[in-house]
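Incident review: delayed structure delivery

Summary: a single-chain prediction request sat in the queue longer than the usual turnaround. Root cause was a stuck worker, restarted by the on-call engineer. No data loss occurred. The affected request and its eventual output are reproduced below so the record is complete for anyone auditing the incident later.

Affected input:
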Amino acid sequence: MPRTGERYAIPAAVRWGAVMWLAIWIPAYWRTWGAANFLHFCDLAVFLTCAGLFFESALLLSSQAVATLAIALVWVIDAACKIFSGRYLLGGTDYLFDARYPLWVRLLSLFHIAMPIILLWAVRRTGYDWRGWRLQSAIALVAFIASRFTKSALNMNYAFADPFFHRTWGPSPAHIAVIFAFMLLVVYLPTHVLLAHLFARKSR
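Output delivered after worker restart:
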């Protein structure tokens, strides 16, 4: 955060708004889906994005921009496919249409639409930190490993079966290695290159 007298890159309303969001979102999700749900990459991104906004951390904001842009786009397309065609693209948004859960809680998941916009805006103000993709890669590896300790039926972060072929790629370490390599090389690295190009003048 800036020293006394310095201008904040992130307005106070946004920083404290992030805190208020967590105060609403955490209890609602915890009560509805349980603590394990916060292992999802998108939910981890909410915590880290809010922390990045509050502390004006270019590193945290950059790491979550790397993590979120492609994943949020897939989430939006998946939900749109269900709405307009009745079928999911990959699955993962089925809970959004499950009437067993309170509508207002499900609507909180619309953060998937808002968060990429907020992150791009925030990174533009704080600068893009090139270490972000490496930090997110480390976070993803830990999350993949931790996900293997949840129920296999949840298939948390696809740590038990991939989203495309719905299969397990060998023993646990092999499967983790395969999906981690996919995230690193197919999702995070291209996003990192794109963000570094977009914010070249404000890269750190």
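Verification: The CA atoms of residues 65 and 120 lie 7 Å apart.
Action items: add queue-age alerting; document worker restart procedure.
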